Amino acid sequence: MRPWAETASDVAGTSRTSEKIALLAEYLRSLDPDSLAVACVFFTGRPFPAADPRSAGVGWAAVREAVERVASARPGAFGEVYDRSSDPGRAAYDLLAARDAERERLGERVTHPDASLPEVQAAFAAIVEARRPAARVDLLAALLERLDPLAAMYVVKVLGGELRIGLREGLVESAIGSAFGRPVAEVRHAVMVTGDVGEAARLARDDRLREARPSLFRPLQPMLASPARDADEIARRMPAPMWAEDKYDGIRAQMHKLGEDVRLYSRDLHDVTRQFPDVADAARPMSWDGILDGELLVMDDASILPFARLQNRLGRVAPSPAMLAEVPAGYVIFDAIALSPAPGEPVIPLLDAPLTERRARLESLERPDRIVLGHLEHPDSAAGLDAAFDAARARGNEGLVVKDPTSLYTPGRRGLAWLKLKKALATLDCVVVGVEVGHGKRHGVLSDYTFAVRDDRPGHEGALVTVGKAYSGLTDAEIAEMTRWFEAHTLRRLGRYRLVEPTVVVEVAFDRIQASTRHASGYAMRFPRIARLRPDKRPDEADTLSTVAGLAT
Ligand code: AMP
């Protein structure tokens, strides 16, 4: 881990992209295949490959406790140093370096045994798989004991999902290309289809990049849509005729099917099949094998019911038969990632086929009840789009996702090939950074949230800047549950206000955004209200300061 950490420090130490790539490439060339795969995954700021559901990471409480224990620091010390840098890795470094300095002052010769990259990743696996929080702390402390402060700092950063060394995933891909003399476009493609930068690095090393394929039961990052302000903007950007699909307000899910084995994955790549046994049962008899993209919804026969009903079913690992009967779920398919050409034949990837072809393949699939195809129209003007939008709303859907019919399926990318047009009301996904007890009926519960967006200005990436504060619009049960969570994840109490771990994402609705000095972002929302919790989104998927600036009036 030490050489990896030194390379990361060197990368952080230069702002020149070409130098960052050269430093990484040289280091990657020196590694054996197993270490290479892990090194690349860690450089993307993740403990596991993107397609690995274990990527969820480790809670802050475990990091805080383990670091305090290993550094022999008093409880609360971590929170205090964290306040100086807002960076948990840096906080770990500060405490562990202080421990080493103290030991040396007492005449001890301080050495650290270090751990290999596969050993560190194996320790991460044991940590995320440990059931009891105390076991997680023990395992993390055992790992940190072996590392020097620099390596420990990066272990904490990787676990937290953020390196802050000015390294975008694209640079890691460039470094892999440069290390092994392969075209970067081929590396990028392999990363996209396998969902694993480590696997792509191995393939690049062995000159087998063209063999990269999506695999069944290894979910890919879903393709994302960019927000559009109105129909005029979309009509300007998209060539006619446009493909306007209804935007369904449910839960994004990827369906993987091989014979009788059907699994559903959420957009954060968790296996949610147990929550939707009715959908898996409905899909099982279908004759195709492959990977589909779509939305899980409450569906009564073929009609779609409001999202609020689905919320009753969520949060339960396995719904009861009564719940399944009361709130039946269905699946709207809107894309095909891979399909068998005929029943029983091997699955063929469709990522590089245009949407027209992918849709044609979907239309030829036989579908049982409650597995339906997304509604599609072909408007050729802004006025036509407006009419399609109103019709989608009349069908009870949220709006439109307008797609370029020639576009390919690009996992994890938010490009201009898909543009989403939502209800007039704007919403932003924000991270809760502080909470307060409410007033009146909400006295005694933490119902007032202060939330932030991601700063994406060069040199500030990764920081969170506050943009508003709102009384929670959540249900009493949700507020009670979140109160317990925030109490357990308070970083610091400042009178009534609690600074909390910045990990909860909420969708905030508002009327307008204006420049203001009230919040650190330089903007404030008018009439903000919490529309819903977004447990499916990680804080690094929250909206950015530039999106806020774009919406400001
Ligand atoms: P948002 O959650 O507002 O960022 O909007 C993007 C989400 O819309 C996707 O992640 C999907 O869950 C959902 N969605 C609903 N209908 C469609 C569709 N026809 N095409 C693509 N995404 C859709």
Q: What does this entry look like structurally?
A:
With 553 residues, the chain is an alpha+beta fold. The chain folds into three domains: 46-159, Orthogonal Bundle (DNA ligase i, domain 1), CATH 1.10.3260; 226-420, D-amino Acid Aminotransferase, Chain A, domain 1, CATH 3.30.470.30; 426-551, Beta Barrel (OB fold (Dihydrolipoamide Acetyltransferase, E2P)). Helix content is 39%, strand content 23%. The protein is built from 20 helices and 21 strands. Strands 3, 4, 5, 6, 7, 8 and 9 form a seven-stranded mixed β-sheet that branches. A hairpin with a 2-residue loop joins strand 5 (290-300) and strand 6 (303-305). The protein is globular and about 75 Å long. The two termini are 48 Å apart. The mean pLDDT is 91. Adenosine monophosphate (AMP) is lined by residues 225, 245, 247-248, 252, 267, 295, 334, 374, 401, 420.
Structural class: alpha+beta
Rg estimate, integer Å:
24 Å
Termini distance?
48 Å
CATH class of the largest domain: Alpha Beta
CATH superfamily of the largest domain: DNA ligase/mRNA capping enzyme
